[in-house]
Amino acid sequence: MSKYTVYTLRTLAAASSAASAVAASPAVLHLAGAVAGSLGLVCSSAITLAGWHIASTETNTDKRLIAGAVALAFAGAMAAGIHASGDLQTAQDATGAAQQADRLYQQQESSRMAALSAVTAELRATQKSKYPGEYAALQKQVDKLSTPSPRQATASQVTQGLADTGGVYRWAMAGMYEVFAPVLLLLAGMFSRRGHAGHATETTGHAHGHDVDTLPATQNLKASAGAGSTLATLPATLATDVDTDENDADTEGETYRYADPWKTALAGIRGRRVDTTEAGNVTRQAVMDYANCNKQDAVYAMGVSVQEGHLEKSGEGRNARYTYPEQALRAVK
């Protein structure tokens, strides 16, 4: 999978999270106000997105569970806001329609009462004995106008009836908003792990295969002859260093360099020729100095070395520390 696929999925997840916030905004802004409501929506959306991202990319199970639980809680709150916003919008639409119906009803009643007054006055002025037919027609009109027009449901009645309808449907629609972001991020995390695993496997294959074969002949001979039962599982270059304490190139004050600088850095780490600090840490700058490579090559070589087991990593981000494994150190001694 292309790295752009991962970026696209994560962008779509962010857009889905933003759409959820927009859908929940009517109820939140109505309850909390414009400033507080907007801030709450932005924070909730960001926490939800970050939680799902950590849950989809973190390798530590405990961190994944905690991040997933936090994201699920905020997603539930967002779904409740979307549901409430749907109820609020429906109620507002229905209230507006009912209020319009009330106004029309009042206009009809005003017209009916005015017509009734006029017909009643005309009926009183008409003598029944002289104009019996006209009198009967006027009396019929009075009887008809005396009956009120059928009244539609008022605004309060319509709004009250909405509370018992469409609840399950609205919850389902609200939940759909919160499904897309975690699904997209989980897919992005899966594709990202596949890409890193494939790249690391290819790199490891080169490091253990072609790269070792291209080492100086003296190193290959020492590697094949010096790997005893205790170090059978160690890489060939590491076994060479254990057997001789130092290889021929280092004895002469030189470092064997590959065409790719990161391969030189990887070989130096595998052979424990990269200097450590007083605390026993292998730093990125030390790798860069040893292999004469740039920052990206040093970081990549250290990452591959961690996957291969030649370095142990503790901490994350700026607090990350890299050391040589203790088991191999005991073997060296």
UniProtKB/TrEMBL annotation:
Transmembrane segments: 33-53, 65-84, 168-188
Highest rank taxon of the organism: Bacteria
Keywords linked to the UniProt accession: Membrane, Signal, Transmembrane, Transmembrane helix
Cleavable signal peptide: 1-23
The protein's name in its UniProt record: Uncharacterized protein
Natural source organism: Candidatus Thiothrix singaporensis
